[in-house]
Amino acid sequence: MANFRPIQVTTDMAIEARDIVRGDAHEEVPGVRVDHKQDQQVEITRVEIFTDEGAHLMGKPQGHYVTLDVPHFRDRDASLRQELTRVLTDQIKDLIPKTVDNTVLVVGLGNWNATPDALGPRVVERILVTRHLSDIVPDDIKERMRPVAAVAPGVLGTTGIETLDMIKGIVDETHPDLVIAVDALAARSLDRLLGSVQIADTGIHPGSGVGNRRQGLSQESLGVPVLAIGVCTVVQAMSIAEEAVHILAQQLADDVKFYKILEELGESNQKGLMQEVLAERLGGLMVTPKEIDLLINDMADVLAESLNRALQPHLDRSEWA
Amino acid sequence: MANFRPIQVTTDMAIEARDIVRGDAHEEVPGVRVDHKQDQQVEITRVEIFTDEGAHLMGKPQGHYVTLDVPHFRDRDASLRQELTRVLTDQIKDLIPKTVDNTVLVVGLGNWNATPDALGPRVVERILVTRHLSDIVPDDIKERMRPVAAVAPGVLGTTGIETLDMIKGIVDETHPDLVIAVDALAARSLDRLLGSVQIADTGIHPGSGVGNRRQGLSQESLGVPVLAIGVCTVVQAMSIAEEAVHILAQQLADDVKFYKILEELGESNQKGLMQEVLAERLGGLMVTPKEIDLLINDMADVLAESLNRALQPHLDRSEWA
Amino acid sequence: MANFRPIQVTTDMAIEARDIVRGDAHEEVPGVRVDHKQDQQVEITRVEIFTDEGAHLMGKPQGHYVTLDVPHFRDRDASLRQELTRVLTDQIKDLIPKTVDNTVLVVGLGNWNATPDALGPRVVERILVTRHLSDIVPDDIKERMRPVAAVAPGVLGTTGIETLDMIKGIVDETHPDLVIAVDALAARSLDRLLGSVQIADTGIHPGSGVGNRRQGLSQESLGVPVLAIGVCTVVQAMSIAEEAVHILAQQLADDVKFYKILEELGESNQKGLMQEVLAERLGGLMVTPKEIDLLINDMADVLAESLNRALQPHLDRSEWA
Amino acid sequence: MANFRPIQVTTDMAIEARDIVRGDAHEEVPGVRVDHKQDQQVEITRVEIFTDEGAHLMGKPQGHYVTLDVPHFRDRDASLRQELTRVLTDQIKDLIPKTVDNTVLVVGLGNWNATPDALGPRVVERILVTRHLSDIVPDDIKERMRPVAAVAPGVLGTTGIETLDMIKGIVDETHPDLVIAVDALAARSLDRLLGSVQIADTGIHPGSGVGNRRQGLSQESLGVPVLAIGVCTVVQAMSIAEEAVHILAQQLADDVKFYKILEELGESNQKGLMQEVLAERLGGLMVTPKEIDLLINDMADVLAESLNRALQPHLDRSEWA
Predict the structure, then answer these.
(1) Are D216 and D69 part of one and the same domain?
(2) Known NCBIfam families for this protein (chains A, B, C, D) (predicted)?
């Protein structure tokens, strides 16, 4: 039987954490349930962490994490964006607690001056904000319209106030039923760079995100349920180096002892060696696609459209366009 | 003895309210004390409202209102800006309650997309924000540095959340000792357009400001003292029309009965007539100088520099530049 | 027979110039032809100046000037915007010389930091730029697509280079068949504030525009035909004062000699007197609606949509949205 | 004697090209002269390509390329910025042709929406633009002030016009004596990421820059001398992978045949293998520091301050601050 050890590295993606913890084991990580589904070009992976042991091994709180992988999103194909929008809308609807029947507050984390971290603010710009309209719109529309508010605290620049404090203050004052936090994530795998969306009903936890999110946004800290939607917009340079060595070693495997020695070291020792040798040079560097600016906009379009549809199921699309 | 009637028109400036209520009377408005001083090119007028009757007549809460008038500010003379900065720094220091020894939160009201309303956000950009630095700076500096936070809620665009709610939430979470609210004001007199700063220890009250501030920021609503700093950035088109008629009538006074008839009508009847005739056409229009963008920046420089000096009396100017 | 005198005041609108020159005369200004048409809620006035005398009297070069007036545009009604878009598209198509079958260069004049002057840059942002696509799109589309380029020299900020020099340089290098210049105009009448579009086949002439356009853009200066599209975004404060006095005097006419004296003075002497008395105080001030920022965006939507339709008659609307 | 082969890979930095072409040879690349100097913490390397053979081997035109390396610039130390500013000012002065006594046009290449490519526009924002002031300033200052113009064509977004065409048009119209082009570069070495400035008297050549510069800016294309100032703001992910493999292999050299096999392959075969294996996965990805936004601003401050000093040697620093 496999001997699972708690995860050592940091990744914002539950699916990556699970793959790392599981390694080559032929059984599932204890306390974790994983479910795959392919919907046209979108691969849907549902990771559920349902025991304390699972949470400990995965380094993540119990809850549901749905990953939507669209490997070719970076090709900027409009039909892919439409497919992702459709699937994402359904998944968001699915994870919104049934008890939520009042205001939803969308929080766009991140700093809009740094492109890979600007996803949150750009989604917020595109959200259909309705909370302030309830006194203005006709009754007919009002009945079908959910009150939605949206803030992007990072566009305020340097304020001297922690994001959590700002959001907590706003939540305490406006009493939303649900907070949806949108954030840019760092992934370990190149395949997920601008090609992967994670939705989690556990909120956002310290250390996540592309910038430095020092404090989490969760039911514990805010007092209301927090749905987190994240997109991988950067990969740490360290991961690239590891991947490069791995790929190259595999190619040279027949001729070279290198691969075997690496294999004998075991994956974690091997990573330890690389960490030691490369960390100083590659720490703090991140990898992004050249067209990051366009891709962030594409993704912001998809997320905002999906959120608008999921949050306003009783409004016709033409009523807000 | 003069028969004072409560003010009918709206003005954000206490000095203008007093001039209107007083009219041609040769005595001061009851419950109001006014004090003039000239400091080089800056005219300092201190209006104190100290009784309920004064507050009722003036349409403003009891408290101190200091107006600094610099009629030639629009000429963009650097030495004028320096003089105003010096005087303003002293006045701000003077109005900061002595009990304030912890965090000060600077709030820049207004929307940065509409130039005349962008003063608040532009001041916030220039504020020396220190609250997040206390764990980082050397003890020597830390002792001399007051924690300052700064937010400009209007730069968030349409959020569906009232400014007051957002600020109240942040105040409840971060517990500042004092809020300083910076706002663009509408004045009645052309002479005050981008040439007049008002500092008041009463906070900001509903209906003030260039945009629609629906709710006030004050000790009552926020639970901490609120110092309000306002600059006239627009004049209502209505005021221009009144002023034009007034000036023209004076010029024609010798030849024309018009002036006498206007005089006989009494000032308020006369204004009532103009309101009736012109309101529909001129309501909602405002007057700004052509170089509004540059002037707002000049003023933001002066306000931010004055605030930084007043809030950090123990830091040397070179330590933050 | 009326004795027409050349226009003394400046207005960017041909229709206003004609009304001023004509005054109370019961005949048309010589060398000028005027034609009215109502298309639903859009009033179309076509002014043609066809002799040297007409040009001299009107203070404008010979050519066609079409004004579209939509008095209630400021009410922000979507159907009004659609009507204006439809009419404007037709008028632009009509004024594009038939010989134009290659690149059209859209130039958005003005500075995007000053809201009333930001119309040009905001239109440029929304233009369907196709000139760089000709090597990329399928032949089928390429055949139906007109190459369009678009620049907004004022967004470059302070460059030390005259707008005309920059545009002339770009024209000489890229050889467009037609330049379409979009500009914010100053009107004399409140009714035209954000409610009036002028299209002229004469280009833009010195002194026009809300900012300081020191040099014109015309066939003479650029060597290619220039279509000018202008929208009134400000009214000079001076005009407001005149209008106020005029309206008030009319109201008081029965009781007051003022009106009669003004009448006896004759309109131009009367204006001369006001100029003398008010110019110093009101010069350099301009009047804008409170919601100027939203209205400029509404108008930019209408202009860009009309231009895109007029310039791409063979593309289906869905092909660029 | 070493057998030098023309460079195969692309790098914007002459110093890197020389190191690659030279490889392990113990002699200098023919037609190339290299000169090192240390000025406090700034390492100055002067590469001169002076023969056709040198140009062919290096893949760069004949001319002078000065590299200033400041390895710890990413630590954000103010004194390092001051040292770099001092050295850079001198080097720019040195490379400005003595015949230049009239207008200098500073061109900031790049797109300000994509942080690593925004260096050029951010430098332009900070340039002391004086060309439009000559009629305004007092004669005393005018005599000492060089006319400087500055444009950042990329801030216009999609215009449909090639940058070269726009700049060429402006140059033909305004006749500057010198163009200084500021650009963000891609380097191969991590050590140069936001820590290296290259000044070249050869202009900018196709394929350089972080974005896609399809055409060069040079004396040939513009008709006036072009000084190019570039800063490495990204490193291709491919280079990271190579560097990682190289470092790791060295560490494992004693135990492992891998290094020897790589060695036997020869550097270029080895790179060829990596290209083949990794190119598809890493192509189009780039590496930037996490704090890219702050670092770009630091560098823009240094470049603009150095340019202002070098271009205005007869103005006192206090006259423009």
Answers:
(1) yes
(2) GPR
Interface pTM, i.e. ipTM: 0.83
Q: What residues in C contact B293, CB-CB < 8 Å? A: 111, 113-114
Q: How many domains does chain B have?
A: 2
Contact exists between A and B (3 or more beta carbon pairs < 8 Å): yes
Output the six-digit token pair for D195: 């820590």
**Residue D100 belongs to some domain of the structure:** yes
Q: Which of C149, C185, C145 is nearest to C167 (CA)?
A: C149
Partner residue facing B156 (CB), from A147, A152, A158: A152
Query: Does B140 reside within a domain?
Result: yes
Q: Please, are residues B46 and B99 in contact by the beta-carbon 8 Å criterion?
A: no
| Percent of chain D at pLDDT exceeding 90 | 49
Residues C8-53 have pLDDT tens digits of 767 889 999 999 899 888 899 999 999 999 999 999 999 999 999 9
Nearest C-alpha in C relative to D147: C160
Same domain, A163 and A75: yes
CA–CA distances in Å: residue A309 to residues A91, C215, D88: 11, 50, 54
- The chain B residues in contact with chain A (CB within 8 A) are 125, 129-133, 147-152, 155-162, 165-166, 168-174
Contact B229, B197 (CB under 8 A): yes
DSSP state of A138: -
- What span, in angstroms and rounded, lies between the C-alpha atoms of B176 and A33? 47
User: Quick check: D241 and A244 CB within 8 A?
Assistant: yes
Residues of chain C found within 8 Å of residue D153, distances taken between Cβ atoms: 156
D117 shares its domain with D38: yes
Q: How far is C145 from chain D (nearest CA, A)?
A: 13
Question: Does residue B152 share a domain with residue B245?
Answer: no
Model confidence at B319, pLDDT cuts 50, 70, 90, reads: confident
Distance from CA of B157 to the nearest CA of C (A): 12
What domain range is A278 assigned to?
Answer: 239-282
**C247 shares a domain with C140:** no
| Closest in D131, D156, D169 to C173, CB measured | D169
Residues of A in contact with B152 (CB under 8 A): 156
Give yes or no: residues B60 and B192 share one domain. yes
Separation CA B104–CA B175 (nearest Å): 9
Q: Give the chain B residue nearest C294 (alpha carbons).
A: B114
Phi first, then psi, for residue D137 (nearest 5°) are -75, 155
Length of chain A: 321
Tell me if A159 and B166 make a contact (CB, 8 A cut-off). no
